[in-house]
Write a structure and sequence with these properties.
mainly alpha, about 0% strand, 1 helix, single chain, about 70 residues
Amino acid sequence: MKAAGLATTPFRTRAVVWAVIGAGLSLVLIANMHLVYVALVSQPDCVAHVRGGEGVADHGKFSAARSSCTPR
């Protein structure tokens, strides 16, 4: 005869495994939703860079392919 406690052990183990998987997926989903929200809402300030046609690319200077910042 089987003990009453042993019959529920596989069910409890499966329930715990699925709960951990669900919690992990929820955490990843919430983190990605936050990243998408921040990307859509934030508008970073313009940073100093060499504009296209100004200067050369040597000496460690890079230029933006298409700048969305207006010159000051």
